[in-house]
């Protein structure tokens, strides 16, 4: 069934347009990744009839005319989207930024931005008449798919690298997924999942292959814009693994611009880990030709040596006149502490990486101090408690005795009077 707001799916490689069906994945002509395109006139007139500020419901489905679905059907859904945008003055002054906002997407139902993509995947799978979905993931795509599918009564097959943090694996088991831990890299995990999906014909939630997922992820930008009364910030900082998130962030702003809801576009700050930064390396060299890298970072969600969506990521950086920054594990852990202690936001390592990159971009003079910036926290710290403790340190530990408490305070240099 043709959607009134969607004009088709355009190949990011050969430029040809194919109809956007629920099962549309890659380009039938050249195998390239597809981009969903919209009729902006239709969107504009539909919003004129039903203005944003008169709508109820703070979920990602609030932006229905920007999404490639007719509706979300009758099945139960988790509440995805509607995450807070905090003004973070204290953190901003520590980072040397005049106008800093934190978008805490760790507050989604399964605690990461991936819920936006997985909620979309579940609806598209239902449209395609499929009750089983599969994906490979470094962790969050999997846990979000398992949770969103469980709510709707669909079943899931999940492939994750065996290095995935316990918190994420626990979520998978709790949501009733069939979980396969793959002893190998994310690259290996992706490959075996693709073979299994081919073999058993499950609905494919692999983010690069399925063009609808980025459409879900872009709702983070629609929300940011609405939360800022459609005044666009100068910069948006986000961490990058496969490249679907940054692609979605950019697509959201472009669609808003296309529909006339905003009058300018932000520059995107693309943050990767120094130990695994194939996309930023290509972007910095001004080329679309990326080279695989090892996966050397504690930020498991962005430890992606062979990115699955480099085209959309590199295009987002280039088109937005973006800024690329790589951060060390030390810098990521420092950003985790800063977000926690000065904004009350608990981020997993990849969730804090955007903020770490922002801090570094200011230090390197890559962005102006009087800029307005939104830093997206993409995942919650409870998913990876080991690295949280590694970053924040161990607490004092005493037997219940006042003398020992005084000694412990003194040992820490705490002078309490
Ligand atoms: C997946 C993920 C990212 C990166 O998204 P990509 O689409 O892989 O680039 C960043 N942070 C967290 C917490 C994630 O789960």
Keywords summarizing the entry:
13 strands; 417 residues; alpha/beta; six-stranded mixed β-sheet; Rossmann fold; 15 helices; binds pyridoxal-5'-phosphate
How would you describe the shape? globular
- As a percent range, the share of strand residues is 15-25%
Query: Which distinct ligands sit in these coordinates?
Result: pyridoxal-5'-phosphate
In CATH, what is the class of the domain at 85-111 and 213-392? Alpha Beta
Extended strand count = 13
Distance between the termini: 72 Å
**On the 0-100 scale, what is the average pLDDT?**
95
The major pleated sheet works out as: 6 strands, mixed
CATH architecture label name of the domain at 85-111 and 213-392? 3-Layer(aba) Sandwich
SSE order, as H and E?
A: EEEHEHEHEHEHEHEHHEHEHHEHHEHH
Helix-and-strand structural type = alpha/beta
> Regions with pLDDT < 50 over 5+ consecutive residues?
none
- Name the helicity range: 25-40%
The count of helical stretches stands at: 15
């Amino acid at each position: 069934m043709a959607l009134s707001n969607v004009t088709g799916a355009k190949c990011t490689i050969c430029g040809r347009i194919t109809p956007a069906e629920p099962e549309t994945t890659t380009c039938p002509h050249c195998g390239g990744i597809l981009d969903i395109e919209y009729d902006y006139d239709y969107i504009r007139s539909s919003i004129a009839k039903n203005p944003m500020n008169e709508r109820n419901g703070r979920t990602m489905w609030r932006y229905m005319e920007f999404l490639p679905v007719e509706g979300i059907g009758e099945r139960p859904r988790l509440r995805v989207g509607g995450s807070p945008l905090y003004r973070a003055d204290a953190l901003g002054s520590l980072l040397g930024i005049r106008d800093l906002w934190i978008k805490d997407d760790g507050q989604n139902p399964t605690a990461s931005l991936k819920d936006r993509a997985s909620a979309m995947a579940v609806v598209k799978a239902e449209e395609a008449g499929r009750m089983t979905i599969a994906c490979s993931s470094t962790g969050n795509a999997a846990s979000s798919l398992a949770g969103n599918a469980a709510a709707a009564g669909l079943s899931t097959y999940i492939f994750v690298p065996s290095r995935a943090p316990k918190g994420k694996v626990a979520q998978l088991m709790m949501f009733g997924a069939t979980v396969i831990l793959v002893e190998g890299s994310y690259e290996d995990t992706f490959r075996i999942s693709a073979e299994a999906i081919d073999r058993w014909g499950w609905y494919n939630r692999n983010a690069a292959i399925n063009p609808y997922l980025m459409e879900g992820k872009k709702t983070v930008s629609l929300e940011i814009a609405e939360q800022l009364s459609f005044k666009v910030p100068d910069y948006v900082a986000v961490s990058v693994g496969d490249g679907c998130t940054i692609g979605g962030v950019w697509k959201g702003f472009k669609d808003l611009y296309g529909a006339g809801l905003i009058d300018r576009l932000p520059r995107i700050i693309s943050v990767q880990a120094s130990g695994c930064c194939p996309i930023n390396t290509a972007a910095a060299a001004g080329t679309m030709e990326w080279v695989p890298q090892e996966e050397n970072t504690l930020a498991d969600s962005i430890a992606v040596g062979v990115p699955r969506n480099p085209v959309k990521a590199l295009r987002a950086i280039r088109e937005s006149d973006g800024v690329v920054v790589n951060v060390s594990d030390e810098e990521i852990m420092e950003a985790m502490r800063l977000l926690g202690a000065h904004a009350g936001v608990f981020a997993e390592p990849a969730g804090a990486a955007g903020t770490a990159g922002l801090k570094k971009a200011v230090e390197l003079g890559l962005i102006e101090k009087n800029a307005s910036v939104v830093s997206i926290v993409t995942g919650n710290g409870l998913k990876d408690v080991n690295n949280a403790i590694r970053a924040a340190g161990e607490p004092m530990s005493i037997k219940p005795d006042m003398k020992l408490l005084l000694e412990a305070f003194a040992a820490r240099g705490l002078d309490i009077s």
